[in-house]
Structure formats: structure tokens, C-alpha cells
Amino acid sequence: MIPLDQLALGQTAEIEMIDTDKLPLKLIDMGCLPGNPVSLIQKAPYSDPLYIKIDESYLAIGKEMAKNIFVRLIK
């Protein structure tokens, strides 16, 4: 298990665990839930924010927020 901010560009993973105390409810409503696939699409300069695809939603989230989402790589 690794934090979401450690994914390489183009990698796909499955969300394993989230720290619900540190994530906004809106992010959870948009599909940031254990079991959903997540892909890293793009990183902004200095790697913040990250542009990701969770399930069928595209989101930009800050690196600090991404550290609270733990994923398992899909091979």
C-alpha cells in the first residue's frame, strides 16, 4: 500500500484505505472510496495539485490531501 501522491504518471491503482477525518466529504461523494480504481493523469509544477481519475470522475487534488488516500497498484 502506498499513498496516492506516490503514483507515477499513467499508473492505475485501487483505493485500499482513506483517512475520512482528513478528506472533505465532497471528495468521498465524488467516488474516492475503497475499491474504486484511480489513475494519475497529470502533475502540476512541483507536483501540486495532482490531476486524477477516480472511477469515472476527473479531479484535481492537493498533494497533502493525496497523502491520506492509500492505494494498491494494479498490474
Task: From the structure above, extract its key features.
single chain, mainly beta, 2 helices
- C-alpha termini separation: 14 Å
Amount of helix: 10-25%
Counting DSSP E segments of at least 2 residues, the number of strands comes to 6
Order of strands, main sheet, comes to: 1-6-2-3-4-5
In short:
By secondary structure, this protein is mostly beta strands. It is built from 2 helices and 6 strands, in the order ββαβββαβ.
Describe the structure.
The longest helix has 5 residues, at 25-29. The chain has a six-stranded antiparallel beta sheet. It is built from two helices and six strands, in the order ββαβββαβ. The protein has helices spanning 25-29, 63-66, and strands spanning 2-3, 12-18, 37-43, 50-54, 57-61, 69-73. A hairpin with a 6-residue loop joins β3 (37-43) and β4 (50-54). It is mainly β.
Write the layout of secondary structure elements.
Blueprint: E1 2-3, E2 12-18, H1 25-29, E3 37-43, E4 50-54, E5 57-61, H2 63-66, E6 69-73
Antiparallel strand pairs: 1-6, 2-3, 2-6, 3-4, 4-5
